[in-house]
Amino acid sequence: MLLRPVRDSDEDAEAVRFVVDAALASPPAVRNGPDAFSPGFPPDSPGSPSGPRAPLPVPAERHLHHARHLARTDPEGCRLAEDAAGRPVGVVLSCRREGTWALSLLAVLPEAQGRGVGTELLRWAMAYGRGCLRGITRGSRHPAAARVQRRAGFDLHPTMRLSGTVSLARLAAPDGVVAEGGPGDRDLMDSVDRRLRGGAHGPDHEELLRHCRLLVTDDFTGSGYCYVREGRVETLAATTRRLAGRLLTAALGAVGEGRPVRIDHLTAEQQWALDVGLAAGLEPAPAGWLGLRGMRPPSPYIPSDAFP
After folding, report:
1. Strands 134-139 and 100-108
2. Mean of pLDDT values over 207-215
3. Of residues 248, 270, 272, the one with CA closest to residue 261
4. Membrane-spanning regions, if any (predicted)?
5. For residue 58, pLDDT beyond 60
6. 3-state SS string over 191-234?
7. Nearest-angstrom CA–CA distance, 123 and 126
């Protein structure tokens, strides 16, 4: 097995997508057999980087974008594992943001699991975060992932998911002003991040702004922000629970009446989010965990899939 840096290229982004799709037991939208990421296929083949492509589902598209972003900002924290034939079998994406290290993605092909690939990838990523006082990662319900992260010293905090269709008639109006945000709100968001998770997201905000709608609130009691994308609350952070509830209420209003929505990674500390979601007709369900090292669960906070 060879570990090499993830490059900021279409080919490596597709390799990340391939591994993630397979690890989630969901076939890639475009694939040309087991050698789809080997060099040298015909230029017009369906799986070729230069060939025709089917439209990407939103989760797959997100993996492409955030893999390239982290390959640019944190090349030493991102690694692809390849077998002797050069085929990708695993990937890890991680980043350092001030004093906080975050694990964005760890995935291994099913046939390569149980061979130490995931452990080695995580070891490399954690070495990149050496010196950071805090660590944060999301976790699926897969028991192998739990074992790897627990052995790595993470405290695993169970999380919930809220999902369903929005009922605005049952939801009170926001209790204050929520405005459309933009690049000019970067200092506000970095300040909130530092207070909640010990390190600003920094350049990750630039990437989130490219793909998400940003809502912000700022008054004499505090401030906060929320990213929304295609029926998902991508991330939310605020200095008080009241402001967090205000933002989540506005975000559900932005999704719209009767539209499907999903809010992931809610720890037990996010009861304010449960109150808003249940009032809007959403249903809770268990959904994995949040892994933390050197920190308590941030609150009020909903971590991003890509940039926890």
Report:
1. parallel
2. 96
3. 248
4. none
5. no
6. HHHHHHHCCCCCHHHHHHHHHCEEEEEEECCEEEEEEEECCEEE
7. 5
User: What SS3 state is found at 268?
Assistant: coil
Give me 248's structure tokens: 């989540």
Residue-by-residue DSSP string for 84-98: TTS-EEEEEEEEEET
Cα(285)–Cα(165) distance, integer angstroms: 15
Nearest to 258 by CA among 160, 170, 161: 170
- Most distant pair of Cα atoms in the chain: their distance: 61
Same fold for the pair 2-132 and 160-302: yes
Give 306's DSSP letter: S
Task: Determine the residue type at 200.
Answer: A
Tracing tokens 């002797």 back to the chain, one arrives at 84
Quote the CA–CA distance of 213 and 191 in Å, as a whole number.
19
CATH class entry, domain 2-132: alpha beta
Which one has a higher pLDDT value, 28 or 263? 263
Task: Tell how far CA 142 is from the center of its chain.
Answer: 17
Q: Which CATH class is domain 160-302?
A: alpha beta
| Non-local CB neighbours of 147 within 8 Å, separated by 6+ positions | none
Q: Where are the domains of the chain?
A: 2-132, 160-302
Q: What is the residue whose two structure tokens read 């230029």? A: 43
Q: Are 287 and 258 in contact (CB under 8 A)?
A: no
